[in-house]
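S.,

Sequence below, as promised.
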Amino acid sequence: MQSSVITFQEDFLELCQHIRECGLVAFDTEFVSDAGYRSELGLLQFATRERCVAVDPLEVPSIATWWEIMADEDTTVVVHGGQAEIRFCVQLSGRAPKKLVDIQVAEGLRGRSYPLSYSAIVERVLGKRVESSQTRTDWLRRPLSPEQIEYALEDVSHVLQVWDTQRRWLEKHGRLSWAEAEFDRLIREIQNEERVAPWERLTGIHKLPRRDLAAAQRLAQWREEEAAFRNRPPRRILRDDLLIDLAKRRPRTLQQALATRDLNRPEYRKRIEDMLAVIEEVNRLPEENLPRRIKSRREEASSDEQVISKLLALALANRCAELEIAQSLVGTNRDLTELVRAIRGREEDADTKLLSGWRGEVCGELLRKVLEGRISFRVSPDNASTPLVFEEYPG
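The prediction came back faster than expected:
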């Protein structure tokens, strides 16, 4: 298998044509997430059956052709923990991957640990050891050392072989369709995250009165624009907690604004006049132009819901142990709470993820019967494969 670092546009386009002809490629990225407004790509790595190649995006003038391939319906792209790679594709091309495989997700459907690191998966599936010595590398600094390049290429060199083994196992055990559904869900969730307005991610936003909410929305919009203009992470323009504090107090003067101690820091103080201008606009808004208060997406579970969710968690853990599948991939505590609310009729539009698709096959009916009182359970004998035995009442 040949390996190299591509720095010229024509070589990159030749690689893209090779990938198209193969129809299957392992893909990974190295990036820096805390330097600019968005994560910045430092290296792209690709592996087909014949080639293992790194591409330097700081040298190649345009890598747009790759995002076109990643979003087409003809090329299967295999990744490990590919949230960042999906996000790059969505952000840089406006399109989502069509045929994506994630070996981290696939492994969660073959065993009880999720998520597993790349090195752990390679060792478990292939019995090979992978070094992880360059995890703190600044991938934007040049030149990259031979050791850095070797580390980066190893991140894709075993991926296709791992997926070959996983795919055969998943097909044999009737779980390949589960994996494919979960790959699609991962893509959809990241697409939905990208559509969320910045202010919606603020902690405590749903508790604000209407004018305070308007201030938070406008300050968040100003922060995004300022961060994009200066190519800095939004939190370095104004921290979330300080933004909410300003929205609640809505100060009119510099002295009032500086009543919050941390706003005295130089990086914040030099922009306070801009913040005060935003707040003044909100203070002048007519009442009828204020936004409506928003309902929290994550309402705190009641005491009863917490108790019932813990009971369901026992059933879910036991079922996952029986099937040798990762419980953290099947369902979270939040998923269990939403299921309780849906079945008890508290929320008609609650997300019933645990009752649909492959999760419904794994545990949906069991959890429903537990909630409806049609199931009893007891401790298993010492030599049993699971800690509990769940039995349905006759009739």
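Residues 2-195 form a domain with the Nucleotidyltransferase; domain 5 fold (CATH 3.30.420.10).

Coffee later?
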